[in-house]
Each structure stands twice: as structure tokens, then as C-alpha cells.
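S.,

Sequence below, as promised.
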Amino acid sequence: MKTDSDFLRDCMDVSPAVIRSIAERYEVDPDFVATAIAASIDDACFYINVVRERFPPGAHLLEAGAGLGLLTLLLERHGYSVSCLEPFSGPFSPYADVRRLMGIDDHALSGAFYTDMSQVPTGEFDGVVSFNVAEHVADIREFILGLAGALVSGGAMVVICPNYNVPYEPHVGAFFTRPISGESHPRLWRRLNRFQKDVITTLNYVTYQDIRALLDATPYRLSFDRAIFPMSVRRLMESRAFKKKHPHLSATSSRVLLRLASMVAGLVPARWLTPMLFEVHRPKESAH
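The prediction came back faster than expected:
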């Protein structure tokens, strides 16, 4: 049986000609495109395991922030019924074109495709999953509560995003003081391409306490899973694509420190760990 990574590569055209076409169209280096695709494949193969640990096959899921659609393909492969939310807005608008060029949209989706939160039905989904998206939304409260409203009774939402209590920016693999800009970080800014700069400008710098505060006084139950930190450390040790994405953390001294940190992660408060994985559960409604 094919690995998830091989399955994804078979589902899309990642030939040099396509990569070159994408690079020319959006004025970025072809190596940047190839690296971004490899990182996206690696992300999808990591996140599918997070989903499978929490939802049984056959569950009706909404993927919020579907991006290139690679996780969508894996969810379908593993027996989930999937609908997607992807606005294709701002710096992420090229995703619609890239999906077409790579042939990803040639694969049928079992559920619906929404381009706006207002289109998402309430009380519809067994689960909502959203990875590397929450840090980019303009209104984090509207995003989280809107998606939580899409859950059926007893449903759960799973979100992974950076926790900006920790001064590390994963999109560019650098430590920082916020906000990141050309004025505050001139050396970092000079090495970023136009796409990376546009992505950075969308960051809302969400933190652990932001999530706790916005769900206070709501009927939803919130929990944080600190296991995501040692999982991410293992990924840094084992995944070539993930190492390349985080070069500052891949140095030998950093690896040693991270391994030690992962061993004591159970003792560190969740507010000081990044990334953060949190679950939002809708209480089961009693039958009358």
C-alpha cells in the first residue's frame, strides 16, 4: 500500500514544468515553490494522524482553511466525509490557481466547498479541523466561535496554530519580537520574498490566553493537548522537509535543547509551549 506521501504525489503534478510555471507566475524562485510543496505534503501527512487519533472513519468533517487541499485528499483517502472552507483571499488567493495548475481540483470532494464563513451550516459537522490557519484570521473570536457553531451536539473542533507567547515565527523559521516588519526586523525582512512578506502581514499573534479568554462564558469546553510539543520535536528530528522549514531549530545545540524540553513538556504550562493544539467541544444536548 502506498504511503500517504506517495499517494499525494500521485494526486498532483509536481513536475519541473509546473513548478517553473508557478514560480514565474508569482515571481518567486522555483526552489521556494518546490520547498513549499514538500512542506505542505509533510504537513498533511503529520496532521492526518492528529485527525485519525480523534475521529473515526466515516465522520463528517469540515476542514477550515483547506489551502492547497492536500489534507483534504488524505481525509478522503482515510474514509472521512469532508467539506472545506477556503476563502482564497489576501496572500492565499494564489492557492486557487496553484490547485488548478497542479491538478488537485481534478479530484472530487465528497462534501461541499465553502468560500465564506457565512456559507457554513450550523450544527452540521461531527468535527472541525483547522491547522496553521487561526494565526492568519482578522477576527479570531469570530473564527473560533463561528466554526464551533458548525458542530453537532457532542462534536469537537481541533485547532493547531502557533502560540505567540513564545517568540518564534514558524512561517519564516526565526525568533522575533512582534510585530514583524521591515522596520523592526530589517535583516529578516530582506531575505523574505514578496509572498512571505504578505503572509507575515496577516499574523494576529494569537496566544494561549487569547483562546482561553474568548471561550470563557461560552457553553463550549476547551482543552489544550501539550503532547503536540514533543510530537513536533520528534518531527524536527525525523522529517527532512520540517528541518528545512526550521533551520534555526535544526542546529545541533537547538536539537539538544528541544529534546530536553520535550522530556519535561508535561511540566511546562501550556501557555509557554508552541505550537498549541486545542480542542473545543460542544456539549451533548440531553434528549427530551
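The chain has 13 helices and nine strands.

Coffee later?
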